[in-house]
Write a structure and sequence with these properties.
The structure is a single chain. By secondary structure, the chain is an alpha/beta fold. Helix content is 28%, strand content 21%. The longest helix is centred in the middle third of the chain and has 13 residues, at 144-156.
Amino acid sequence: MTADNLVIGGMAAFSTVDYPQHLATTLFLKGCPWRCHYCHNPHLIPLEAGDEKITWKQAHRHLTSRRGLLDAVVFSGGEPTIQKALLPALQQTRELGFRNGLHTGAPHLKLLEPLLPWLDWVGLDIKALPSDYEIITTNRHAGQESWAAISALQKAGVDFECRMTWHGALQSPEQVITVGEQLSDQGVRRFAVQIARSDQMLNGTIGAGYLSMENKQNVRNKLTPLFETLDMRE
């Protein structure tokens, strides 16, 4: 398997938000084993190559031309870890002198672990408590390995943040607070709560899940003391 086999669904040539405090190019890889109700990139769920306009060779040429101008490459998705071509791609971007970032829900720890030596930063999506993952992902086997990824990142010394998407029809303020408390207990230092956009629901049967300012402020107040940084992103 080579990096040329990478199935890329899109590219943001310049991003200031996908890798904290770094300028990056973000590659959106296709394929995901989950069907989260609030998925904001449902077009990336199928892994099969279609009429993609971005090949790895094109992305590599772009990155080569941006050496010295950009700091990092971020691999997002979809769920990028399910593509075997990700490892050689990470190796090539490191050889070009870039930092490597990854956005992942870590559905399979065995797919994440070989990538760790080549990663500088990870945005780890924590969907819920392990027992509640099926409510979000519609996959009854999800959850345990995502939470186990926290220890794997810590042991590998890879910088990371945990982020949770909060949809009011799926999670109560109390559930979000409980997730944050357990993350803090596991030594997580940076946590971001992302407010789901109701206009990008994969499953149209889920309601809008309105979140009041009071609920959001309550979550912020409860969680802020637990982390070095807590972000509420809308």
